[in-house]
Write the structure tokens for this entry.
Amino acid sequence: MTRRKLAIIGNGMATSRLLDELSRRGGLQMFEVTVFGEEPHGAYNRILLNRILEGGAIDDITLKPAAWYAEQGVRFYPGRVVSRLSHAARRLWTDDGSEHFFHAAVFATGSVSRVPTVEGYFREDGRPKGGVFAYRTAADVERMRVWARPGQRAVVVGGGLLGLEAAKGLVDLGLEVTVAHLFETLMNRQVDQTGGQFLRRAIERLGITVRTSVNTKAVLGSDRVEGLQFGAGERLPADMVVFASGIKPRVDLAKDSDVPTNAGILADDRLETQLPGLYAVGECAEHAGTVYGTVQPIYEQCAVLADTLTGANPAARYRGSKVYTKLKVAGVEVASMGAVEAGSPDDEVVQVVEEKRSVYRKLIIRGDRLAGAVLVGDSSAAAGLVRVFDNRSPLPENRLDLLASGEAIPGSSAGNDPEVCNCHHVSTSTLVAEIRGGCDTLARLSNKTKAGTGCGSCRGQLADLILKNAPVTAGRAKG
Ligand SMILES: Cc1cc2nc3c(=O)[nH]c(=O)nc-3n(C[C@H](O)[C@H](O)[C@H](O)COP(=O)(O)OP(=O)(O)OC[C@H]3O[C@@H](n4cnc5c(N)ncnc54)[C@H](O)[C@@H]3O)c2cc1C
């Protein structure tokens, strides 16, 4: 029997996960899968891009080496852009002119860095000025590394997650780094004002200068950057500028192919676009008015899409995701979920401020249910809080128990077997069993369980578990 042809456009983190989910359901045998990837490598973990800035190679963050595709019977075209698609003809064309037939196709085209509307970003030939960078791809980061020299002055525009990560990478290379953020609070989407102040102090302790409430108006210099001009007319000299000020879903191919789009490619609860047989997943997809920009929701979409495509669960529906953030930003633990500010005077707010430990924790409680939480400096309570938040569990009378450990939280199973890797849902007991069975380095443990290969924020916890549980412990928590 001839297999149906499934084309996947884009080879980022969504595609990598979708291939895993398809594989689990026998989808790689069911379909003849072809992946078209603009970037020249196998899929890699974009979240860990800073490792390249630190001097690492693409292999250090690769999720699927090029050989993986052939081994799994997936046809893979690296470095190939899909430039045109016809739904009626069930065909797509790539930038080298080749034509490919498909029965079903998935848009997994992700996002690009938003090019800000600042004067002087581009040179006369239409390319960005020398020393002006986006922060999205391995190629961006490789170019940054080639340009950067110790002692240079770098400005990172954007004080969100990406900007702070870029700033940390550059300060580690010996540059004098300033973060210029439009809003008053760093990571203003994830933390409240006080959390932002704690975060700011932690970032400043790294030697990074933080400027908030500054509006970048222009890039100065002719062929190469010489500085930035802010709204109030102030000029800040710079040898290098990194823009990390938002992302834009890549919808152009879908739009040109008459697939309905809004901010993202419109997808229903089965992740199907409005044209049957065409699907969208990841940062390019818009579901119920939301485009997601972190991996956890995207992974949930991939599971539903794999169920849909393979028929493993025809009833599977994607109903949207609750967004949690648990990150290590420039070495600082940050977690947030739900509301970051009280919504009304009836909301109960619990704040714990520990100046000495540089830790700030806040809970927002509405009608005896957790409506939101912000943790800066110590996110060890995050897994338990996520469960309570998700299950809408009743809360302990002593609210501080919520911040202590999962054991005290009614309705939370975190106390019995806390989840360490929230991206791949790997529990403590699984990890301890693998460590005792011989996975006694981070690399081995991650290969076996996938823990630590998502956002990477649990790698410190993995290292601790190895030290505590490996049969021979000394010096094991490496690489
Ligand atoms: C520096 C950085 C740090 C991050 N940190 C975190 C974090 O801590 N936690 C978190 O949850 N998320 C984080 N994210 C976000 C996370 O990386 C994204 O949500 C995720 O990568 C999106 O996956 P995707 O596959 O939808 O898009 P992408 O990973 O962008 O992949 C899309 C791919 O499609 C390719 N493509 C596009 N159009 C075409 C075409 N026409 N033909 C062929 N190929 C095409 C692109 O070149 C790209 O390779 C971070 C992102 C960055 C950049």
The CA atoms of residues 407 and 415 lie 4 Å apart. The chain has 14 helices and 27 strands. The longest helix spans residues 295-310. The longest strand covers residues 359-366.
